[in-house]
Amino acid sequence: MSRPWRFQFALLAGLLAGCCLAAGWLSRGGGWKSAGLPGLAAVGLAIALRLELGRRQARESERQAGAAAQYVQSGRPLAAGEPEATRLLVESLRPLWEERQALARQAQEQTTRLRAILDALDTALVAVDAERRVLFANAAAARLFHWGPTPQAGERIPALPRIAQLESWAREVQAQGEPAGGRLLLPDERTLQVNLSPLPAAGFVLLARDISHEVRMEAQRRDFIAAVSHELRTPLAAIQGYAESLLDAGAPPAATSAQEHLRIILANTQRLARLARDLVMLASLETGAYPYRFETAEAAALAAGAGDTLRPLAEEQGCTLRLGPLESGQVRVDADAWQRVLTNLLENAILHGGRGAEVRLSGQRREGEYCWKVADNGVGISWRDQARIFERFYRADRARTRGGSGLGLALVKHLVQDHGGRITLESSLGQGACFQVYLPLAAAQPPTRETPDPAAQTASGRG
Q1: How far is CA 3 from CA 10, 60, 68, 78, in A?
Q2: CB under 8 Å to 299, separation ≥6 — which residues?
Q3: What is the per-residue pLDDT across 368-427, written as a single tens digit (0 to 9) for each?
Q4: What is the pLDDT of residues 26-73, one digit of tens each?
Q5: Sign of torsion, CA 365 366 370 375?
Q6: pLDDT of residue 296 exceeding 90
Q7: How do the domains of the chain map onto residue ranges?
Q8: Which CATH number fits domain 215-286: 3.90.110.10, 1.10.287.130, 3.40.50.2000, 3.30.465.10?
Q9: What CATH fold (topology level) applies to the domain 295-459?
Q10: Close Cβ partners of 332 (under 8 Å, ≥ 6 residues apart)
Q11: DSSP label at residue 129
């Protein structure tokens, strides 16, 4: 007999026993009041038994529910001795549990995927409540504002009070419930595009993106247009002026005067042609369309060729051009393009070194690389100019009257990078400048053999 049925039997037996006691008492002449005492006792016993039965049934139900929950959550099959009620409970709950687990996994996957997408953005995204506590922040926000680890939900964001304009926008959004934002210049000279939008209960969402590169490109485009206009205007004005002078002369001009006018016209025409050629070359380099023809070449011979090309200019400018020492070394280059690198550096040093300056081109191997060094002892380059010296059309103040196009060093930078090399500049005002260009060696070379520095390799300028 099962345990619940034993308690039911005991309850009925107690009631029958009470009735029998009461009947026997009455048959022996007892009164109704005294006969009711055994009945009351029997009823009390029956109630007590029924309450105990209820408690035991409740404990049994709890045990079965707990066992069913363990089976459902663990996925284990039921043990052999479990009651039928437990089995039925498990069978009814297991599909619901599995469905709940599937929904939880799906929600977790979606949350993880959304978090990964937001962390991959280059735009900072921060959502905060009315007390400036983080509701959500992505990794870009921590990088952009230098917060270190990404703030977690419930933390306070630390950056706003230190940026006055950003704090002002945040207060405006929280007070008026209207979007705010604009360009924000940070103390470290970065420029951010910031937009703040209100959230319910005085919170807001902050979106910020670093547009420093775009701002620099805008400035460079403006400078480029202005520089091209200037570079075109100056020679065109000279050509137009001298051509009009020849045409407006009442009589044929003297031969010497006409030749001088034509010489100036030719020089400015050549300047325009060089500017056009440099612009085309720079455009092809920036778009990756330049037709390189790489081959293995002797580094010392490339330097010697550049020196021979620039000797006449050095004499004209009153500079001394020296070559050497030049170590032997094989490099893989486009020979014509690399000649352009070395001649541009030499020309820059000759034109800007000043009359009487000494310009030296040397080369040596250094730990798997070949290094060409172009150094002068001229007026030098200020640290402000060094930061922009490789930009298109940028010229240091001391060189604004020179006749170059302002594209030489920009071309050098692109050509060196496309060859897999690097270029450095060391200079101080009044102490000259030194450009060093590095390229990987094509192969191991024989022992060093330096080219001497004879007087025959020295070109002295005319006073």
Answers
A1: 11, 11, 20, 22
A2: 326, 327, 328, 329, 330, 331, 363, 370, 372, 439
A3: 899 999 999 888 888 877 877 887 776 665 444 455 567 888 889 999 999 999 999 998
A4: 565 555 445 455 555 555 666 666 666 667 766 766 776 777 677 667
A5: negative
A6: yes
A7: 3-84, 121-210, 215-286, 295-459
A8: 1.10.287.130
A9: Heat Shock Protein 90 (3.30.565)
A10: 294, 295, 296, 297, 439, 440, 442
A11: -
Locus of tokens 């025959």 = 456
Task: Please answer whether residues 353 and 434 qualify as being in contact, where contact means their C-beta atoms are separated by less than 8 angstroms.
Answer: no
**Does domain 121-210 fall into CATH 3.30.470.20?**
no
pTM of this prediction?
0.51
Q: Facing residues of 422 across strands?
A: 438
**257-266 pLDDT tens trace:** 778 888 888 8
3-state DSSP call for residue 324? strand
Angle (nearest 5°) at CA 273 between 394 and 311: 75
Structure tokens at 255: 């031969």
Please name the residues in contact with 434: beta carbons below 8 A apart, sequence gap of 6 or more: 373, 374, 375, 376, 425, 426, 427
